[in-house]
Amino acid sequence: MPAPAAAVRDSRVTLRAFTLLAGVLAVVFGLSFFFSNRGIAQLQQARKRVDELRADINRLQAENARLRGEIESVKKSTYAVERIAREDLGMSKKGEVIYMLPQKHEGRPQSPPPSR
Q1: Which residues are CB-contacts of 22 (< 8 A; sequence separation ≥ 6)?
Q2: Average pLDDT for consecutive 10-residue bins of the chain (116 residues)?
Q3: pTM
Q4: Is the Cα torsion angle 33, 37, 39, 41 positive or negative in sign?
């Protein structure tokens, strides 16, 4: 027995209303995702933070490699130990005279000595 025409028409209207409602809800959720605090802006900030952290990691790995090389140099060479003692600790050999020059301050020029 065929379905009455009114029932078929009602099911089509219901299907169209349901499709329209689903489309409107999808647009509303999409817009709220894009323009909310948790949307695309936060995703871009997170990606930027990840890039910054990766750059920090690379910089720190390079510094660690440099420091490991310096440690190996100090372990193997007396010259390296002497250089560190002289430059960083201000030490000298017995009988040596050390001349300390004034360091220039960055950002402001040194003033000339007062004339007498």
Answers
A1: none
A2: 64 85 90 72 88 98 95 85 83 82 70 58
A3: 0.45
A4: positive
